[in-house]
């Protein structure tokens, strides 16, 4: 598939935070857009066909992909922040089985291209992350998503599935986007909650750097991926990173640096008492966050994010009045 002409595009998770913006952007660009999600949106987008789509239902996914003459699938449906009633099995059913159902339907109905939202979490949280590149992770680094973290593990499994398909079904073009921490004017999630606490938490001896990407950049990259000549995996992050002390300085807040052992004990006790959903394994997440290099995004995919990591953070901080 090549050229910038209009396509028939199915967006899974089309009513979500990213999906709703992607759907509007693709429709505005002249594509025929089908938006699938668990519920129809309260405010449908003009010119977009909104359908009920549960990716855990293989037959329904097959029918929706087939009956709309889908040329490109933008697969965004996944569970990023589980609700209180969630379970590991439910998250696996959406993240992994759901992706398998989408890919099976793509192959069955001759879809030309699939754009998949993966995550930097697919690399996993390891002390030797990016060891070959001064701590920076590149697309050819191994994917070692930790089993202790459902989202990280599931993204790794999805990427392994995609890698197998590249060998057996090269006719299905793939663009796999390993997305960093998304910030935007209205972004409010478990990561941004860390920045709104009275003190920034840090494990002693670890910089715990973040890479940030502005939400409108993510949307623009997904839209571009629908018709781009480029295929393969791309880290999606602004240039540069910010350490916990740098973030604290920007916010005018102190840093609370704790020994890892002490924090593990506190989390273990807190989880046992029901005071926190996070167990002692969370220290790995805090200590070894994946730091994504965006060289391939800029040089091969041809997109330079409008904001660096620092500029994205400062724009978010200003928008939140912090």
UniProtKB/TrEMBL annotation:
Pfam families reported in the protein's UniProt record: Epimerase
InterPro entries the UniProt entry points to: Epimerase_deHydtase, Lipid_A_modif_metabolic_enz, NAD(P)-bd_dom_sf
Occurrences of domain NAD-dependent epimerase/dehydratase (ranges): 9-197
Coiled coil regions, renumbered to chain: none
Molecular function GO labels: UDP-glucose 4-epimerase activity
Keywords carried by this UniProt record: Isomerase
Enzyme class: isomerase
EC numbers for this chain: 5.1.3.2
PANTHER family the UniProt entry points to: BIFUNCTIONAL POLYMYXIN RESISTANCE PROTEIN ARNA (PTHR43245)
Protein name from the UniProt record: UDP-glucose 4-epimerase
Species assigned in the record: Nocardioides marinus
